[in-house]
Amino acid sequence: MYEMLTGQPPFTLKENNRKELFNDIKSCNLQMPEHISPACKDLLSKLFVADPSARIGCGPNGAMDIINHAWFAGVDWNMILAKTIKPPFVPKI
Predict the structure, then answer these.
(1) In what helix (H) or strand (E) does residue 64 lie, and over which residues does it extend?
(2) Whole-number Å distance between alpha carbons of 15 and 49
(3) Cα atoms found within 13 Å of the Cα of residue 14, Cβ hemisphere only
(4) What residue ranges define each of the domains in the chain, with the CATH number in brackets?
(5) CA–CA separation, 60 vs 84, rounded Å?
(6) Between 4 and 57, the higher pLDDT residue
(7) Disulfide-capable partner of 10 in 2, 44, 76, 85 (CB 3.0 to 4.6 Å)?
(8) Please, is 93 exposed, middle or buried when counting C-beta atoms within 10 Å of its C-beta (0-12, 13-18, 19+)?
(9) How far apart are CA 21 and CA 36, in angstroms?
(10) What tens digit of pLDDT does each residue of 19-33 get?
């Protein structure tokens, strides 16, 4: 999701310092661009939690925590599940 929103991977090699890259990944030290909305930043920060048991979607409510997140406000999940919603873009294959 991060890469789709930014066009970049969430963690990148800085100045050929692989140790710093791996530390960023292990600690989930994620730098987000300014153009990402606060709701999206909140969702991403909850998805990038290092401890899987503390990550959004892994608690007692499961995926409902993700579905009910503010970033998805206005999404009609029933239409998506029924495949009746039209995609905003259809690539030519």
Answers:
(1) helix 64-67
(2) 25
(3) 10
(4) 2-82 (1.10.510.10)
(5) 30
(6) 57
(7) 2
(8) exposed
(9) 22
(10) 887 887 777 777 788
